[in-house]
Amino acid sequence: MYTAPMPRTKTAARPTEHDAALARQIGERIREARRRAGLTQQQLAGDRYTKAYVSALETGIARPSMVALSYLCERLGLPPSHFLDEQSPAWTRLEVDMQLASGEWQAAADGYEALLADVMDEQVRAELLRGQAEALVRLDRGREAVTAAAEAARIFNTLGRASEEALSRYWLAYGLYLSDAEADARSMVNGLLARVRDGLKVEPEFEMRLLIALAAIESKAGNHAESLAHLEAARGMADDLDDRRRAMFLFNLAINYRETGDVEAAIRTGTQGLALLRAAGASFESAQIENDLATTYLATGNVERARELAAEARREFEQAGDDRNLSAVLDTEAQIALAAGDAGQALELSRRALGLARDSGNQHVVMAAILTEARALRASGQPSTAEDRYREAAAIARHSSMPSRLRDVLREWAALRAEAGDHRGAYELTNEALAVN
To answer: Is 265 among the domain residues?
Structure first.
């Protein structure tokens, strides 16, 4: 959703000042390591290179290839990273961007926080803040996301960067939605949608994302017909792009380049992978839309259509090996089974969803799956175990600062206690639900 740093482009064979400085740095470290190892230049060269080549490396006249550096490192007993600049800002930024694009939300949030501590350039700061806002949204930390996204939007507005400001406002709206400020979120998303339809160029899938956001807001407000209309429109925009696996291959290749010391190749390859992953996100967005549609159709009582859509989404995420998103679909299927009166299947699916959510760090689905399990236990006549699950779900909601979800959990828990004849306990939970803000 944001601009990754681009690799340096060479327009001539003549080394740049940066190339020369890096060659000198590598050469000095090779010379120091060779002397500590008690080797002559000829001995370090071995039977593959010449003394003259090692001399050229040590004086910075030549820069070793990946193959040469790996060979010398093996003879010196040191990793390639010992000879390279570990503080490459371009690589560090790209690494964090890749973590965000790959779904490693916590690592990305931590990475952006660290990068923000040293950045001085206003545009770069705004880009980092926008990335941080997205990571925080993915972690369901809406209020923190609002702060980061609002500052990013302010900076981009000052710089006259309309498309970047719009992206920042998208994450600002998402943060407001997670903070239960649905009216503000709806107003902001509708405003962004109007700007896009008036000609604002943001990114190819931005209108689709705005429609998905509006669908989520309307669904939360109980306006399921409006939500369905937005989702069906978004679904029609989702291109079937299947480059995600190739993108992940490029990411792995970038890491391997980094490990062997070729930082420039790592940045170039990682940037290519990031672009592909953004494009491949369309197919994943399509699967996510299928899942959102399934839950919305379920809310309208169309269980069969919900089941069909959830199955389509599950196949996509199973094929891609995406356990994080798969956990969400399994929880949807558990809710569908529960609506169809199959509490046993609902229990099985919700527990599978919970296991995958915990393994993949999807805290939002962790709580959702626990809540679905509680409902299934309640439906299957196990009130005592259901009580334990509601208690666990409530604790997570309190800790995660999710007021709307906490209210839902407390109300259902109160109903369970009322069914069991514990009217005092039900009254206490109802009062707590009313006091949540």
So the answer is: no
- Give the pLDDT confidence of 17-42 residue by residue, as tens digits: 555 776 788 888 888 889 888 899 99
Q: Report the number of distinct structural domains present in the chain.
A: 1
Angle of the 403-419 helix axis to the 363-379 helix axis, nearest 10: 20
In a domain, 38, yes or no: yes
**Which residues, given as ranges, of the chain have pLDDT below 50?**
1-16, 87, 239-242, 256, 259
pLDDT, one tens digit per residue, over 392-401 is 999 988 877 6
Distance CA 437, CA 434 (A): 8
CA distance 356 to 345: 17
d(CA 430, CA 427): 5
Burial class (CB in 10 A: 0-12, 13-18, 19+), 199: exposed
- 379 DSSP assignment: H
Domain span at residue 58 reads: 17-83
For 153-222, the DSSP string reads HHHHHHTT-HHHHHHHHHHHHHHHHHTT-HHHHHHHHHHHHHHHHTT----TTHHHHHHHHHHHHHHHTT
Instruction: Write down the pTM of the prediction.
Output: 0.58
In a domain, 55, yes or no: yes
Of 4, 8, 210, 6, whose CA–CA distance to 127 is shortest? Answer: 4
Is residue 44 one of the residues assigned to a domain?
yes
Q: What are the structure tokens assigned to 46, written together?
A: 């071995």
